[in-house]
């Protein structure tokens, strides 16, 4: 429903963030296609400038996005699929977080829908990659609930490490924002 107009008009949303991310994803797709890998430099995009970008801006997501771009073959299909994936991951995560917090199932669905409609998550419609961090935030916040509720084993190391590593590989700045509650809980 949120991307209905984009599908009906068959249009690609171009914003400043979209153009930047299209460049980095094009670079990784060309690296995969040619087999000429360069983790640090962008040799196919940004005017073949050799800019260091993906290494500090979510390398895993860049390569996953590059592969996806190769598979779907155009920016329109890519953008629709990515927006759908972000909304799906986000909706499921917020719903599960609400249930973990012992919220009524109907309220959990409403919270998930509200989370999808407002703030950072909705920015994926403008192709702002901060939405990826916001999509994974509910999964990290589940770890906070474990820390509060589980007195015997408050820190579930493996699941905490996995979600934080995934967030770091997707959007580095989100890692800092999401780590703050853990730092506060561990220091008290």
UniProtKB/TrEMBL annotation:
Keywords carried by this UniProt record: Cell cycle, Cell division, Membrane, Transmembrane, Transmembrane helix
Domain of life assignment: Bacteria
The residue ranges crossing the membrane are 52-72, 78-99, 106-125, 131-148, 155-179
Query: GO biological process: any one?
Result: cell division
Signal peptide: which range, if any? none
Question: Which protein, by its recorded name, is this?
Answer: Cell division protein
Q: Which organism is it from?
A: Lactobacillus gallinarum DSM 10532 = JCM 2011
